[in-house]
């Protein structure tokens, strides 16, 4: 029984610091801050008014088959990101549509803006006043369906709702399908939209910060909600070689586990164990890892626990660990996908994305190198992408330079 | 003609079916292979299979799923007296479209008419669609991946396919796959909205134990191949018993019945059977079940 090697040949980031691989790469290298005053809803009355919105997102310019009036913002993020990934992969669209190809996408809130609009309408106009067209848009399953419809894919259309680690789950599932030969091409990633509920919810949890997300900093005080779409094009190594595709990176393996402990508090031992599971699955030793793309939310609890777990696994001199959330805010279901794409770009372009807004090392935290404020040139052969979610759903993906 | 398909891809590998049970209330092994000799009990009498403890607040679909699992594991009636060997690391994949709709509907009605205080804390977990899979895991100690699938008429064989991916990718050595639907008024009303004329929904469950070769203690000689998707009706399956409309449970129930048929010699000539589920809206899935060492008869795959 032969398991196939799985590679990433297409990247599709739709983010507040750049849309498309080259713009996103530039944004990461420059350490651009994608956080701005909220525009998608009126934040009057909220004490904090910042979010990582993708103001430049014009779905009508990106999708070709979907009618933008019939799909919610999150599905359009997913479909647009998939479009970019397929274009980057350079595969013929008709050939792709005729292949065993599908998508797996992760999300936290799904079509949260649609749901908010319907809730508002139900309160003002009653149940009878709801727009049937909007009701059709609610289901989170539509994220992957949007990708498949846009690209005419007839294989899997799976949407995973494992919250803030969902993109890593989706990437892992796609990897397994290709590795076992169950599918030949997969689009994997995730999407979410900024909305009133997540802003209010995280504020009430005490997890929101006012102006800037500053992971690993002594004065870090929480997340900034963000949005976007992430998609990666996956195929087997033989397939990529046969069609002469440019291979950005190899998916070496992944690990999943669940704290089964607390709804919101991360668990140090369980996160460390998840790293070990991922390393074992990828056949990688801890000392071979060159870079960790952190979950790095910027909350006091997450960053302390994450840094501690890293030291538990890697020892006193762990590899550099930076957080893209410092630039993007917390893009929820897209977060680990955008982290994975950042890591792939780091592997391909030999640089480490920075943790911006970093001023003061935290004396209470184990000593780590957060790549403060400026991207750094570095040889990245193996990268680890961390994703942790409410409920203790940990998912870690290992990526490598194609050998 | 023997099969000549090359099996270099992991996805094509056959996997062992180490146990099975069908549990459709009222049916016997004469009606549906894999059923008990006496008519299968309904959810209210699940204690006859599972023992009295631990059933408080469990919905009908969870009870039927537990009955099928208990019997597929070959356990004597009653609560487990000692930990089940082979439970650690075992995956659970459950297919059910309507398992929790009555609870969700009741909770919403109660909240609307009488407020949140009247919602029973015992009902709260039942409102979550993964309650069946997690209840099975908790009762038997299955600590592997735990999934619930609600993908419509193909859910049963979607669950089999997901279990195969977990096993072939090395995420688990063993998987308990269950398909179950209830037949309460809410579930029946929703099932009646399906296109065509699917027939009235009946309650029932099926369970198969899948594994990599040697992963379970028993070698039944029965294997299951890859799941194939069809966008047009693939035609009738091999003597799939017409027991009623099982919707998301159908794929697993009929797979369990086919395994029982092949193992029991109920159909001496058949060395393999094709199981199917699906409808015009959700497409169709088929899977081949084979008895080891036996040659496939030409045309048996239909």
From TrEMBL, chain A:
Q: Which SUPFAM superfamilies match?
A: Thiolase-like (SSF53901)
GO molecular function terms listed in the Swiss-Prot or TrEMBL record: 3-oxoacyl-[acyl-carrier-protein] synthase activity
Q: Which GO terms describe its biological process?
A: fatty acid biosynthetic process
Q: Name one Pfam family in it.
A: Ketoacyl-synt_C
Q: Which GO terms describe its cellular component?
A: cytosol
Which keywords fit this entry according to its UniProt record? Acyltransferase, Transferase
Which superkingdom is the protein from? Bacteria
Record bears the keyword Transferase: yes
Q: Which family does it belong to?
A: Belongs to the thiolase-like superfamily. Beta-ketoacyl-ACP synthases family.
Please give the name of this protein: Beta-ketoacyl-[acyl-carrier-protein] synthase family protein
Q: Which organism is it from?
A: Streptomyces buecherae
């Amino acid at each position: 029984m032969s398991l196939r090697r799985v590679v990433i040949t297409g990247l599709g980031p739709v983010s507040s610091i750049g849309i498309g691989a080259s713009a996103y790469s530039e944004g990461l290298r420059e350490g651009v801050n994608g956080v701005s005053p909220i525009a998608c809803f009126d934040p009057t009355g909220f004490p904090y008014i910042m979010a990582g919105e993708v103001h430049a997102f014009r779905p009508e310019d990106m999708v070709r088959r979907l009618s933008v009036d019939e799909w919610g913002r999150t599905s359009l993020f997913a479909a647009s990101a998939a479009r970019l990934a397929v274009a980057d992969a350079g595969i013929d669209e008709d050939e792709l549509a005729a292949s065993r190809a599908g998508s797996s996408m992760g999300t936290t809130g799904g079509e949260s803006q649609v749901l908010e609009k319907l809730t508002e309408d139900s309160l003002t106009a009653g149940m009878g006043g709801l727009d049937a067209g909007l009701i059709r848009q609610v289901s989170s399953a539509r994220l992957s369906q949007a990708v498949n419809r846009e690209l005419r894919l007839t294989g899997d259309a799976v949407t995973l709702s494992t919250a803030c680690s969902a993109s890593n789950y989706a990437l892992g599932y796609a990897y397994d399908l290709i590795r076992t030969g169950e599918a030949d091409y997969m689009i994997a990633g995730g999407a979410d939209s900024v909305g009133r509920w997540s802003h209010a919810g995280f504020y009430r949890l005490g997890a929101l910060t006012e102006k800037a997300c500053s992971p690993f900093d002594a004065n870090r005080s929480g997340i900034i909600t963000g949005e976007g779409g992430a998609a990666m094009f996956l195929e087997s190594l033989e397939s990529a070689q046969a069609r002469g595709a440019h291979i950005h990176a190899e998916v070496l393996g992944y690990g999943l586990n669940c704290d089964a402990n607390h709804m919101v508090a991360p668990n140090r031992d369980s996160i460390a164990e998840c790293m070990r599971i991922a390393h074992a699955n990828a056949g990688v030793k801890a000392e071979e890892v060159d870079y960790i793309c952190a979950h790095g939310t910027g909350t006091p609890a997450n960053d302390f626990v994450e840094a501690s777990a890293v030291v538990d696994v890697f020892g006193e001199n762990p590899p550099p660990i930076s957080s893209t959330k410092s630039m993007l805010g917390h893009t929820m279901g897209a977060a680990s996908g955008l982290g994975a794409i950042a890591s792939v770009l780091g592997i391909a372009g030999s640089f480490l994305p920075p943790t911006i807004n970093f001023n003061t090392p935290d004396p209470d935290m184990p000593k780590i190198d957060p790549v403060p404020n400026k991207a750094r040139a570095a040889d990245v052969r193996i990268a680890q992408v961390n994703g942790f979610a409410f409920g203790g759903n940990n998912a870690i993906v290992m990526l490598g330079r194609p050998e | 003609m023997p099969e000549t398909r090359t099996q270099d891809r992991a996805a094509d590998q056959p996997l062992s079916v180490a146990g099975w049970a069908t549990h459709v209330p009222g049916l016997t092994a004469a009606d549906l292979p894999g059923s008990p000799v006496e008519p299968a009990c309904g959810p209210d009498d699940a204690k006859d299979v599972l023992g009295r403890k631990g059933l408080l607040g469990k919905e009908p679909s969870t009870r039927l799923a537990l009955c099928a699992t208990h019997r597929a594991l070959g356990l004597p009636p009653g609560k487990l007296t000692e930990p089940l060997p082979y439970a650690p690391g075992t995956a659970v994949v459950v297919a059910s479209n309507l398992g929790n709709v009555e609870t969700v509907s009741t909770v919403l009605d109660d909240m609307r008419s009488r407020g949140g205080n009247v919602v029973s804390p015992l009902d709260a977990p039942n409102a979550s669609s993964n309650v069946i899979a997690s209840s099975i895991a908790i009762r038997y100690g299955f600590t592997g991946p735990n999934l619930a699938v609600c993908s419509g008429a193909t859910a049963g064989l979607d669950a089999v396919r997901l279990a195969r991916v977990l096993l072939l990718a090395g995420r688990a050595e063993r998987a308990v796959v269950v398909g179950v639907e209830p037949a309460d008024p809410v579930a029946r009303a929703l099932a009646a909205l399906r296109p065509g004329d699917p027939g009235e929904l009946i309650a029932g469950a099926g369970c198969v134990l899948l594994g990599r070769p040697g992963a379970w203690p028993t070698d039944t000689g029965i294997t299951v191949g890859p799941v194939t998707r069809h966008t047009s009706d693939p035609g009738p399956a091999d003597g799939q018993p017409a027991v009623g409309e099982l919707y998301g449970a159908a794929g697993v129930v009929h797979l369990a019945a086919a395994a029982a048929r092949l193992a029991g010699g109920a159909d001496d000539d058949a060395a393999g059977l094709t199981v199917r589920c699906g409808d015009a809206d959700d497409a169709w899935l088929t899977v081949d079940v084979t008895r080891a060492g036996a040659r496939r008869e030409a045309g048996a795959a239909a």
